[in-house]
């Protein structure tokens, strides 16, 4: 039973890690090679698999001529990947210490090097997804150690963060990315992130009904 729980949790960790990385920084050759060589990861990108330019160009040229151009257009120029833009009535970004997401990060000692991450504030979609990745990683370690009460507490934090933050605005942003994407990779990445955020919130909502007790949920299946 614990093995099944850990397998499911490991999948959550890996998907949050993948989508946070793709949506936060430009693709590099190492990441693209990872996507292309792992059939399980590549299956998340069905349109990219069939994309003619992927088959006819080197990874380096594909990145420089298409993927990084698309990232710049989507995340730096044309769209605004920040929660405060979507949630504030004046559609202004909150980049200072008053950003409610940043306050939450501080409470959990979560730090992001904004300059290295190519973001201006902690409520960037990639950073929020990375926060979920870190939480899921901590939950996995707790489950692995049999510390189920700790795992339950972390799962509740995840549920509340999705409910109060990502679910409130990320679907709108990701639909915009799908609409504006100039490459199959970023179309698929936005589609994956959208579907996964909603399905993970559904999973955590079910877990909530058992007071976030993983074993109780597993026994009820």
Our count of helices gives 12
CATH architecture level-2 label: Orthogonal Bundle
At the first level of CATH, the class is Mainly Alpha
The assigned structural class equals mainly alpha
Mean pLDDT: 90
Question: How many strands?
Answer: 0
Low-confidence stretches: none
Specify Rg, calculated over alpha carbons. 18 Å
Query: According to CATH, what is the topology?
Result: TorD-like
User: What is the ordering of alpha helices and beta strands?
Assistant: HHHHHHHHHHHH
- Give me the oligomer status: single chain
Shape annotation? globular
Number of domains: 1
Distance between the termini: 11 Å
Beta-strand share of residues: under 5%
Q: Quick one: CATH superfamily?
A: TorD-like
Helix-residue proportion: over 70%
Q: What summary fits the major beta sheet?
A: none
Task: Describe the protein.
There is one protein chain. The protein has 12 helices and no strands. With about 220 residues, the chain is an all-alpha fold. It has one domain: TorD-like. Helix 1 (about 1-25) packs antiparallel against helix 9 (about 125-145) and helix 10 (about 150-180) runs antiparallel to helix 11. The longest helix is centred in the C-terminal third of the chain and has 33 residues, at about 150-180. The radius of gyration is 18 Å and the shape is globular. The chain starts with a helix and ends with a helix.
């Amino acid at each position: 039973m614990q093995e099944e729980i850990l397998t499911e949790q490991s999948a959550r960790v890996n998907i949050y890690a993948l989508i946070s990385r793709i949506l936060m920084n430009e693709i590099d050759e190492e990441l693209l090679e990872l996507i292309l060589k792992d059939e399980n990861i590549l299956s998340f990108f069905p349109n990219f698999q069939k994309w003619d330019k992927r088959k006819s160009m080197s990874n380096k040229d594909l990145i420089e001529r298409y993927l990084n151009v698309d990232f710049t257009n989507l995340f730096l120029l044309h769209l605004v990947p920040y929660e405060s833009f979507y949630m504030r009535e004046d559609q202004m970004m909150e980049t200072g210490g008053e950003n409610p997401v940043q306050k939450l990060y501080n409470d959990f000692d979560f730090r992001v090097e904004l300059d290295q991450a190519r973001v201006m504030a902690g409520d960037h979609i990639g950073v929020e997804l990375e926060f979920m990745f870190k939480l899921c990683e901590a939950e996995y370690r707790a489950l692995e150690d049999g510390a189920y009460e700790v795992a339950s507490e972390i799962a509740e934090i995840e549920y509340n963060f999705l409910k109060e933050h990502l679910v409130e605005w990320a679907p709108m942003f990701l639909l915009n990315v799908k609409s504006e994407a100039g490459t199959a990779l970023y179309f698929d990445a936005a589609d994956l992130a959208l579907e996964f955020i909603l399905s993970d919130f559904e999973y955590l909502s079910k877990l909530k009904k058992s007071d976030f007790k993983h074993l109780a949920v597993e026994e009820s299946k």
